[in-house]
Amino acid sequence: MPTIIKTTTPPLPGKVYLVGAGPGAIDLITVRGAKLLAQADVVLYDALVCAEMLTLCPQAQLVAVGKRAGQRSVAQEAINQQIISAAQQHAFVVRLKGGDPMLFGRADEELRALEDAGISYEIVPGITTAFAAAASSRQPLTRRGIARSVAFFTSTNGLGEPEQENLPSCDTLVQYMGGREAIATAERLLAQGYAPDMPIVAIENCSRPDERIFRLTLAQMVHGLPETSGPVLVMLGWAMAPRHPI
Fold it and tell me: pTM score, two decimals?
């Protein structure tokens, strides 16, 4: 009687959801994002994701993979491998990223890694910090007759990337991770011909209970921002001028 050898087919990889956590406050994540967290087997989350946000996924295995400017963090290649490993072991994986995954979120590297590994994924957008900062400070990024263009930028360079010489030319500039770069940014803008009295709004820990808002001018920012411990977003331009009741 012939021997029957049973073979088992290895399980297919799970699906990865890149979810934007929003600017910080738990109630600013999208409804879809919250629903996906509640279903996840594993959640790999960034350093800027607040602990309260993780209460939305009590059933999930939590893995901290955060990157934070100026601080020791997990290398991106290692993060990519952790996401792939999680998808190979679990059906439902959430990669939870602060703000929106597609803006300054290293999404390109992670998507390429998933594509190379043949793992399916879906992207769920989040509220980027610039929009939450404009709401918190009550300063629209665009204003009729004053500002009709906006540029988001960061001066944080990746390894081997050349230093950025000129900053974007736009009516309103929004600098992510701008606290450590405040002095250099002010010096560059003054050298590019921006007015010393151009108004600036800087926000630390946007949308969180410990949020702080600073108002100053370009000339004042040459001397730096007040001491901060959390992430800082800086909005620059005449749209940041104090608003007056009509």
Answer: 0.87
